[in-house]
Amino acid sequence: QVTEENNLAAISEPDLNPGAIEVPEEGPMTFEFNLEVRPEFDLPDWKGLEIERPVAEFSEQEINDRMREVLYPHSRHVPTQNAAQLGDLISFDADFYHGDELVSSVEEEMVTLRERLTLADGTIENFAELLTGCKAGDTRETTFKLSENSPNSKLSGETIRVVFKVLEVKELELAKLTPTMLEEIGGFETEEELRDAVRKNLERRLEYEQRQRTREQVIKALTEAADWELPPELLRRQAIRELQRYILELRRSGFTEQEILAHANELRQNSQAATARALREHFILERIAEEEKIEESSQDYDDEISLIARQLDESPRRVRARLERAVQMG
User: Fold this and answer.
1) Residue 104 CB contacts under 8 Å (≥ 6 apart), including other chains
2) If DSSP codes are grouped into helix, strand and coil, which group holds residue 155?
3) What DSSP element (H or E) covers 67?
4) Is there a contact between 269 and 122 (Cβ–Cβ < 8 Å)?
5) Chain-centre distance of CA 244, in angstroms?
6) CB 230 within 8 A of CB 39
7) CA-CA to 263 of 20 to 30 Å: which in 34, 35, 127, 200?
8) pTM (predicted TM-score)
């Protein structure tokens, strides 16, 4: 009644104040509650926007590279005396310094050598360049900046020096595509069937990139002047939901768990700004949907759940139950 009479767009349940409830001997009771509402803002001019859409054709080399990724979980790493290369497994000790002060250490950490090493509170951008070519016993060092949201608030945004001591290098011994392996990977009968599935996976990733690029361009145009305030409690709650939704979207699009972890760590490091931006996007799109009388249907939810279920190789019913438990469908 309050939202209808005052033309408010509520975005949370009412927060009732029990101490303000009054029940007089005569007349109606009175009470107070706080209600988070959608901020008021002017819609930008969004009709007629021009956007770019990426296109691509996948080469045989790209298919082969993706085949290696598919076989990776079924392969093994074996100790080697060769110099470390991308994709090798590296075991190391690492000491982290702020100036000359040792702030933390890790021992016998084992990671796959990739372009970047994403930590919980920072990213080492030149990780592959730093450790490619190293062998057991070698020492390497570099610097990186802690994120502004680092748990160690005293060092947030500070430059950290890290010293790696390589303990062991293991190279990948790729699994053979035997009939048993093809069956284990996904019930394939031939290598060609697997390659077709890999190509479709790459196409789904391209579709994901197309959607993201389209969305980024549209949202950038819509939110360029959006600097209005947001309810702080809503920001906190939404940060958790945004991370969960982002992870589900990456899974549906065929990213590996290791790739998802790296993306999730990056999102955590910039959670406040990312969530504020996402909320402003949501409110603007919601206003546009209201003005254009666009309403979601149960079929929209069913289609999205089916896409996620196929990617995770689970039943749609199980995916729906998990989403509902996480209060992600609203």
Assistant:
1) 95, 96
2) helix
3) helix 60-71
4) yes
5) 8
6) yes
7) 200
8) 0.48
What CA–CA distances, in Å, run from 5 to 8, 9, 36, 159, 291?
Answer: 8, 11, 16, 54, 19
Would you list the DSSP string of 102-151?
EEEEEEEEEEE--S-EEETTEEETTHHHHHTT--TT-EEEEEEEBPTT-S
Tokens of 151: 């748990």
Which tokens go with 255?
């990213």
Q: Could you tell me what percentage of the chain is helix, strand and coil, using 3-state DSSP and rounding each to the nearest 5?
A: 45, 20, 35
Q: How far apart are CA 255 and CA 199, in angstroms?
A: 14
Per-residue pLDDT reduced to its tens digit, 184-218: 888 899 999 999 999 988 888 888 788 888 888 88
Distance CA 320, CA 309 (A): 9
Distance CA 161, CA 106 (A): 14
Q: Look-up: residue for tokens 């290098």?
A: 169
Contact 207, 54 (CB under 8 A): no
DSSP-H helix ranges across the chain: 2-6, 60-71, 127-131, 179-186, 191-223, 232-252, 257-269, 271-292, 298-312, 316-325
Structure tokens belonging to residue 132: 């490619």
